Amino acid sequence: MVTPAFISFEGLDGCGKTTQAELLAAHLRQAGERVLLTREPGGTPLGERIRALVLGEGERPAPEAELALMCASRAQSVRELIRPALAGGAWVLCDRFHDATEAYQGGGRGMDGDVIRALHRLLCGDLQPALTLILELEPRASLARARRLPTAGRFERESDAFFERVAAAYHRIAQREPQRCLLLPASGTPAEVAQRVRDALALRLGLGAPERA
C-alpha cells in the first residue's frame, strides 16, 4: 500500500495542470483514497480573497507586494489545509505551490530566487511536495489556450518574453531538484496526459503499475 503523498502541479498558464490535478483527484477517489485538492493562490477563504486581488482586473500590485501576497496565501493554506490533510492520511494535490512563485515572481518578474526560497522556509517551514509535476507545453501554444479562457486575467496579458522567462525558470528548478521535480509533456488529449501523470506516480511513488490503453 502506498502512503498518501503531497503532489504539486506546475507549468505555464494554459498547460492543463488544473485539469490534470482534477483528473488525478478523481482517479484516487475512485480507488478509495481520501484527497485534498487545492490551489495556489487560494484554497482557504483568506487565500481566495488574495487570489482575487492578485489575479483580478483591479489594482496591479508592485512586484514586491505581489510576492508577499502569494506567500501569505500559501502560508495560510499550509497551516489551515495542507499540513492537517497530510497528518490525517490524505493525498494532497495542489494546483501550483512554491515553485510557481520562483518561476513567475522570480523568473518572470526578475526577483531574487534566494529571497523567494528563504520566504518559503520562514513562512511555510520549507514544506516540499513529494513529487512536483511540471507540465511542459510550448509557451505560444500554452498561452493561446490560456488567453481564450473566460477566466483569463492580467497574467495572461503578460508578454511572450515574460512567459519565456517563466518557462526557463521552471527548467532551472527541475534541473536543480530532479528527485522531486519531473518535466512531463503536456501535448495530446487530456486522457493521454493523465496516463503520463499516472505513469509518473507509478515510477516515482510506486502507486500501482503503469496502465496502457
Write the layout of secondary structure elements.
Blueprint: E1 6-11, H1 17-30, E2 35-39, H2 45-55, H3 63-87, E3 91-95, H4 98-108, H5 113-124, E4 131-136, H6 139-148, H7 160-176, E5 181-185, H8 190-205
Helix pairs in contact: 1-8, 2-3, 3-5, 4-5, 4-7
Describe this structure in words.
The chain has a single domain, classed as P-loop containing nucleotide triphosphate hydrolases (Rossmann fold). 54% of the residues lie in helices and 13% in strands. The protein has helices at 17-30, 45-55, 63-87, 98-108, 113-124, 139-148, 160-176, 190-205; strands at 6-11, 35-39, 91-95, 131-136, 181-185. The protein has a five-stranded parallel sheet, sandwiched between helices. Residues 209-213 have low confidence and may be disordered.
Q: How would you characterize the largest beta sheet?
A: 5 strands, parallel
Specify the CATH architecture: 3-Layer(aba) Sandwich
- As for the number of domains, it is 1
Alpha carbon gyration radius: 16 Å
CATH superfamily: P-loop containing nucleotide triphosphate hydrolases
Q: What general outline do the C-alpha atoms trace?
A: globular
Estimate what percentage of residues fall within beta strands. 5-15%
Strand order of the largest sheet: 2-3-1-4-5
What is the CATH domain class? Alpha Beta
Q: Name the average pLDDT.
A: 91
Oligomeric nature of the chains: single chain
Quick recap:
The protein is of the alpha/beta class. It has helices at 17-30, 45-55, 63-87, 98-108, 113-124, 139-148, 160-176, 190-205, and strands spanning 6-11, 35-39, 91-95, 131-136, 181-185.
